[in-house]
Amino acid sequence: MWQWWLAAGALIAAVVWFSGSEFVRGGSTFSAGPMSASHAVIGQRCELCHVPVVKATGFSPSLGMRRKVPDSACLSCHNVAAHHPAMTTESPSCGSCHREHVGAMHLAAVADQGCTQCHASLTTSSGVLTVAAKISSFATNHPEFRELRVVSGTDRAAAFALKFSHEAHLKANLRGPHGVQTLECVSCHQPALNADGRGSRGMAPVAFEKSCRSCHSLEFDTHVKGEAPHGTPAEVRAYVARSIGDFAQAHPQVVAEEIRSWPAEAPLPGRAGMASPKTQAEWIANRTDRAEAILWRGKCALCHRDLNPESRATLQPAAPALPQIEPIKQPLRWYGSAVFSHPAHQAVECAECHTKAIASNSGADVLMPSIATCRRCHDGQSSPQGPPVKAGHAESGCFLCHFYHGPDGAIRGGVLKAEVAAR
Hints:
The protein is mainly alpha-helical and about 425 residues long. The chain is built from 14 helices and 8 strands.
């Protein structure tokens, strides 16, 4: 009989212990594990995500929590879009990819299995695939980046419309306005800033005023101290004419002396000659035309192409036509379907990834690193769910570069919408 009483006492003690623990710990006695840092704000309020086994009534509390969290619980806080809803045959549940209660790991660090369950043998509802059908690992069978495999040299030359030589600018001991110097990549390429002034993942476009004008001045006349603006041809012409006209009005004696001693000069290359000026107006017109020739043919032409150079072959009787500068069309962001963080790679020299930049002599060159360059470190030997990252082996999970919910999701890996837009 004492065995029966002992068993009953153990059962009663277990019930008392369980009930007391549930009361003291707020229902977390049988929790699957600690919350992630992203959900730490929820604390012990399990009912916000988990559906109770027995719902509370006016006479009794809720009992137990179902293990599976419904998608509606996630979507009540996270405003995210479906993954290519017009193409995919089905979308997995949130919990099948984002594993909670496994410690303080980042929930966005999804295991590759969440992606490869579809992309290892991809099918679509429309029957038309725009991406590779079989990708099971970045380190093994991920295709070359799209921008490096589909854009031909002819298309790049026609589209980018920029003449630039990295090789010439990276030579040692260049002569600049401030003496001999050697440029580095960071001399021109700087990280982009978000709306709040913080650095973002991408790089800011190279700006003439910040990176080029210090060496490539737009001076156009010895009498004018200012430089022409880096703007449209119409803005440049207006500034040049106004500046030379203002000088003539302020220094009539200088103008008169130059008219009397005007030397005979050979006509400008490809242009009809202009008679020596006899009046102040002719002096202004002459110097304005020569200033434009210095800018259009000598300075702007270093980087830009004039689509209609023949239109300015005649000086008289009217002012030559403005050049038609071909717009620069180089993309500000190359990989539209992936993200990249320059700050995360700041320990790596630029030339280690952009290997072709040092020898590039054309603005039509695509200097983005190939997938082989990335695989030297992201080789599949480390994962966020696995052992600590080995030296020289970086993570290679899909989540590092790709959005599942699209770049317009509310939050992805701690990156706000504003930062995505800034990139």
